């Protein structure tokens, strides 16, 4: 379900407002709890588009067909309001002083990212950023915002990094990059590629795959095609994301700037 929400928000954030895909994504995300029994024809009428536009939309956002979309919407309807509210919980949350408890939790999370290997890991990544002509960085929503920060700050030092807000554009780029590309993935959970490659084998030709770094708080998640993990400690609650990733990007950009002296 959360994959669908991410994809819909990404579509809204990247498509022109007058496009059919924008209209469809906006209508779905505003009415998710009401669409579990909706047919393709009914959804098309509600969005003022054709049936074929709905079918194209499903393929454009990476779903097999309308039935796959319906299954995602049905899963959403089973989530209770209480379950959704759990998203906003964090350790030592004090509703009498939300600001203080939240800020202290953010600080606690930031102190957890420091480890003995962090400087070495960042130096290795910076060396590769300098080495590769083609560098791309991707993530979902807040993590993609972190990728945008990396793009902006490295550009000020003359290094161009490719990124895309739209999920399907990220997938398209990854499928066509080769061994001449450095790929940086921001994923707190470590499950980025689980979403990208839901129905296909990733990097069938390992000889020509890009070099991949993943920056994640997961201590256990591993993918055989990822070359280097930069791991940080996190409580993985609402106060933990994306601040550690933002701090790590700052460290990457500072180290890159120093390496140019």
Instruction: Report the span from N to C terminus.
Output: 47 Å
Tally of strands: 4
Q: Largest sheet, if any?
A: 4 strands, parallel
> Helical element count?
12
β-sheet strand percentage: 5-15%
* Mean pLDDT over the residues: 87
The sequence of SSEs as H and E is HHHHHHHHEHHEHEEH
Helix percent reads 40-55%
Rg value? 20 Å
The low-pLDDT segments are none
* Category from helices, strands and their pairing: alpha/beta
Shape verdict: globular
- Biggest sheet strand line-up: 1-2-3-4
Structural write-up:
The chain is of the alpha/beta class and 261 residues long. A four-stranded parallel beta sheet has the order 1-2-3-4. 29% of the residues are buried. The chain has twelve helices and four strands; from the N terminus they run ααααααααβααβαββα. The protein is globular and about 60 Å long. α2 packs across α4 (51-60). It has helices spanning 2-14, 20-30, 40-47, 51-60, 66-78, 81-85, 98-111, 118-131, 142-155, 167-176, 192-196, 243-259; strands at 134-138, 181-186, 211-216, 228-231. The mean pLDDT is 87.
Looking at this protein, list some descriptive labels.
261 residues, alpha/beta, four-stranded parallel β-sheet, 12 helices, 4 strands
Quick description:
This protein has 261 residues and is α/β, with parallel strands linked by helices. It is 51% helix and 8% strand.
Layout of secondary structure:
Blueprint: H1 2-14, H2 20-30, H3 40-47, H4 51-60, H5 66-78, H6 81-85, H7 98-111, H8 118-131, E1 134-138, H9 142-155, H10 167-176, E2 181-186, H11 192-196, E3 211-216, E4 228-231, H12 243-259
Parallel strand pairs: 1-2, 2-3, 3-4
